[in-house]
Automatic annotation (TrEMBL):
It comes from the Eukaryota. This is glucan endo-1,3-beta-D-glucosidase. It is found in: Cell membrane. SMART domains: X8.
Length: 493
């Protein structure tokens, strides 16, 4: 199956790409930190880890950030040469905080074990954005004790100098009341907790990892100046003393620098743990803006100049490598579309990752199910009162985040919207015949219903996607029961 259709990017984007390619040639000479990628696995049908590792290396990535120490991903990274930041999920923080034995066991199993097998682990990320304001303090009391225990476990294993600890934080842990970086400081409600961690990282040679998302600012604030999110100098600059800021990243980054400096830790190393732009699920999320942002960011840091408050190389991990259709959409429908690649390893737009004169390479050897789709029968009346319930059922159990205002499938008519929902459920359940029933409203077709920017996907083959990860739903019998239940509910309404 071909890649998703993409519209032309225009002369400005083409010029940006040429500039990026020229700058990246001197990437190493400028002393710039290696570019990395976040590799998330919250997908119903993830690509095989060996395929992903090859894709990372083929495209010039030098490091990767993981959110969990899954055996499939860690094993695939053995002898790859890629530097690894491996994460401990937030749900394990209480265990790590309360049990030194559990911390020792985690380090032995997930760090020492893979190091001995040739996995180049460099960092352990303790939690992920644990002080995010929307968590309402759920991890305030466990993050620092967990961090200390993991560090102690690393020292006990003889890895204290080789592997560093960090706690990836969302940029909402600091703020500035005036919009100027020099007025930045940590949030008052977590100020002391953050400083405990900062001091510990400074004392142990760790790094402060921060996730910066200009897209989120644009998403939540209709008055946010859109051009300020990008790197091509079209926005009204923010002047802060002798420093001038023409993009949000530099200003946000330096707000953190000022927060650290005011509290006595102005020289603490910083790593950008996540930065990126989604391609769907919102009117400002599309391939053109994502290409503009990500290539702009890479060109920006490729100069090695850093920011006004922190000149020099910037270490960063793009977010993210591949779309994940099982991610929570509580923050927004865009959450499943941060990937540079689609679920099946097809690049959504062109980027230069640091390999001179090269183009982004797709995943190789990906196998698909049959070329067939599930669609609404043409004989079904749109006035049928039972029809909406079948669509709700499909979307609740599959992925309809590409449907909506100014999304990739926002131009579809009502019948096509329903077909998209049906097909998403059908593909997610491996094209099982009973997954294209929907009380008799659906049928399969061999004619691709994709149109324009809207791609009706075909799922990756089961053996290809699940050779390393247990499937969530494998039983046809269970699926039949579920569909029978929804049929009864619809029929009785």
């Amino acid at each position: 199956m071909g890649s998703r259709p993409r519209s032309g990017r225009g002369e400005a984007a083409a010029a940006l790409f040429v500039l990026a390619a020229a700058v990246v040639v001197s990437w190493s000479a400028a002393g710039v930190g290696a570019i990395g990628a976040n590799w998330g696995t919250q997908a119903s049908h993830p690509l095989p880890p060996d395929t992903v590792v090859k894709m990372l290396k083929d495209n010039g990535f030098q490091k990767v950030k993981l959110f969990d120490a899954e055996d499939g991903t860690m094993s695939a990274l053995r002898k790859s040469g890629l530097e690894v930041m491996v994460g401990i999920p937030n749900e394990l923080l209480t265990t790590m905080a309360n049990s030194m034995k559990a911390a020792d066991k985690w380090v032995e199993k997930n760090v020492s074990n893979y190091l001995n097998k040739g996995c180049n682990v460099r960092y352990v990320a303790v939690g992920n954005e644990p002080f995010l304001s929307t968590y309402n303090g759920s991890f305030l009391l466990t993050t620092f004790p967990a961090l200390k225990n993991i560090q102690s476990a690393l020292v006990k294993a003889g890895l204290g100098n080789q592997i560093k600890v960090t706690v990836p934080q969302n940029a909402d842990v600091y703020d500035t009341a005036t919009g100027k970086p020099s007025d930045g400081d940590f949030r008052t409600d977590i100020h002391d907790r953050i400083l405990e961690i900062v001091k510990f990282l400074s004392d142990t040679g760790g790094v402060f990892t921060v996730n910066i998302y200009p897209f989120i600012s644009l998403y939540i604030d209709p008055n946010f100046p859109a051009e300020y999110a990008f790197f091509d100098g079209r926005s009204q600059p923010v002047v802060d003393g002798s420093a001038t800021y023409t993009n949000m990243f530099d200003a946000n980054h330096d707000t953190l620098i000022w927060a650290l400096k005011k509290n006595g830790y102005g020289n603490l190393p910083i790593v950008i743990g996540e930065i990126g732009w989604p391609t769907d699920g919102d009117m400002n999320a599309n391939a053109q803006l994502a290409q503009r942002f990500n290539q702009g960011f890479m060109t920006h840091i490729a100069t090695g100049q850093g920011t006004p408050m922190r000149p020099g190389p910037i270490d960063a991990y793009l977010f993210s490598l591949i779309d994940e259709d099982d991610k929570s959409i509580q923050p927004g429908n865009f959450e499943r579309h941060w990937g540079i690649y689609t679920y099946d390893g097809i690049p959504k737009y062109q980027l230069n990752f640091g390999v001179p004169n090269s183009q982004i390479k797709r995943a190789s050897g990906v196998k698909y199910l049959d070329k067939k789709w599930c669609v609404l029968k043409p004989t079904v009346s749109l006035d049928d009162p039972k029809l909406p319930d079948t669509v709700s059922y499909a979307c609740a159990r599959a992925d309809c985040t590409s449907l909506g205002y100014r999304t990739s499938c926002g131009m579809l008519d009502t019948r096509s919207n329903i077909s998209y929902a049906y097909n998403s459920f059908y593909q997610k359940n491996d094209q099982d015949d009973v997954a294209c029933g929907f009380s008799g409203y659906a049928t399969t077709t061999g004619q691709d219903p994709s149109t324009g920017t809207c791609r009706f996907g075909i799922m990756i083959e089961v053996d290809s996607a699940y050779s390393w990860k247990p499937r969530r739903v494998r039983s046809n019998y269970l699926l039949v029961l579920l569909l029978a239940l929804v049929h009864l509910c619809v029929s009785s309404s």
